Amino acid sequence: MVQVEDGLGVIVPCWLCGSLVPVKFTKKDKPYLVCASCGIQTFIRYGKAEELLIAKVKRYQEGK
After folding, report:
1. What are the CA-CA distances from residue 57 to residues 2, 9, 15, 32, 39 (Å)?
2. Each residue of 52-63: pLDDT tens digit?
3. Which of 22, 25, 54, 64 has its CA 20 to 30 A from that of 43?
């Protein structure tokens, strides 16, 4: 499940606890997640993971 919220950007579930987490971006525009519920940080570093995240967002936006 991926959500695109106005003003909040992209929201995805934490892969560890399932809480909804906003996708943030580094200075180099790499996506990452920091879950406030469980404290895990996930950094998406390689092209394939970025492609999968973008594809999920696009599928969500098209289904809206």
Report:
1. 6, 10, 16, 14, 23
2. 887 777 776 676
3. 64
